[in-house]
Design a protein that fits this description.
By secondary structure, the chain is mainly beta. Helices cover about 0% and strands about 50% of the residues.
Length: about 120
């Protein structure tokens, strides 16, 4: 069982930055692909960025060049550095950890952290 706890959300003005953190329990964090998703009011949850166990990163076009996902396996933590924030980035941001083996798929979510971008 893996528990994920997000932190770092808040209220910022357009153009400002925030850094989200997601701390994971468990001893095999390094084997998991870690992702950040977000869900705005009235919209479906969408993938923002993923970092694989091999440190390969993938971004949604809407955040590419503004957001950076990273991980520190020694601290069991994944980060999302968000720069040049826009009002449309307002959402609840969720951390997800996933791993597949021959036997099963492991999939865990955090509880979410609110990010509000408003002047």
């Amino acid at each position: 069982q893996v528990q994920l706890v997000e932190s770092g959300g808040g209220l910022v003005q357009p153009g400002e930055s925030l850094k989200l953190s997601c701390a994971a329990s468990g001893s095999i964090f390094n084997l998991y692909a870690m992702s950040w998703y977000r869900q705005a009011p009235g919209k479906q949850r969408e993938l923002v960025a993923t970092i694989t166990s091999g440190f390969r990163t993938v971004y949604d076009d809407s955040v590419n060049g503004r957001f950076t996902i990273s991980r520190d396996n020694a601290k069991n933590t994944v980060y999302l550095q968000m720069n040049s924030l826009k009002p449309e980035d307002t959402a609840v941001y969720y951390c997800r950890g996933s791993r597949s083996t021959a036997a099963r798929t492991y999939d865990y979510w955090g509880q979410g952290t609110q990010v509000t971008v408003s002047s």
